[in-house]
Amino acid sequence: STYRGNALVYGRPLEQQLDLSRAAVVVALDADFLADAPMASAWARAFAARHDPDGRMNRLWVAEPMQTATGTVADEHLPIPALDVAAVAVCTLDELRARGRGTPPLAEALVAQARTPLGAAGVAWARALAADLDAHRGAGCVIAGSRQPPVVHALARWIAAAGGNVGGPVSFTEPALIEPLGRQTIGELVDAIGRGTVGTVVVIDCN
Predict the structure, then answer these.
(1) What is the pTM of this model?
(2) Do residues 160 and 129 lie in contact, with contact meaning Cβ atoms separated by under 8 Å?
(3) pLDDT tens sequence across 20-36
């Protein structure tokens, strides 16, 4: 999902690199990045070093369907169904656009559709998040979880760009994987199994 989302924005599956020690605002969209991510240990150390009430205090915003280790230490926590995380991202991006930040225009129908499941409290949360990102322009990170679809990862990239964070805490590199997008989607695999062209599926270290 991460690579496909990045490809939607940048035209190729780039790898996002985060320097949380430089981030004054950290956003987790259904992402337990402090405990359940490939870079969790390094990110946790960098985040904790900045989450110091007596020093440089960052702010953590978490929208998630269930309480996680990351959500437990959130400054601003929004419990929300996993399907509605995309709505949070859309509303946040729309609020940044309303503040004059260079984002692609969003269709009014799309924004209205996103606001409906969030309700007044969820929309207010997204508005406050956008204000925090705008107030700390160039010092924010947005992390989308692996369970979220590519479109949420793409929206996270647009939010980061609108907040002026690329080149600061956020950068992109070529992926280390030879084929980051993979050769087959799950849908293509299911079709192949249905046709009988694939008879055996072996899964290694993957749920």
Answers:
(1) 0.83
(2) no
(3) 999 999 999 999 999 99
